[in-house]
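Problem: given the chain below (83 residues), write out its structure.
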Amino acid sequence: MNIQLFFIMRCTLVPRIKGQVLSTVGVAVLVTMAHGALFNQKVTLTPIPFRLVGLALAIFLGFRDTASYVSEVRNSATSECFL
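Solution.
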């Protein structure tokens, strides 16, 4: 297996999302270090909000996924990434 395939940046989204991923990791590290305490008060969360947000995201991503397939079919003949 050629390890250089992991470092090819042509036709990838990695350079565009690098900042967002790093900021999300930074926020996750801060939350982990806080151990659920906010302004010296313990914050308790139930799983219900996470389930509701997860359901909404699943529906939204399902529609987005379908739209991306339609867009890919339209643009695949002219894109240099598919050569």
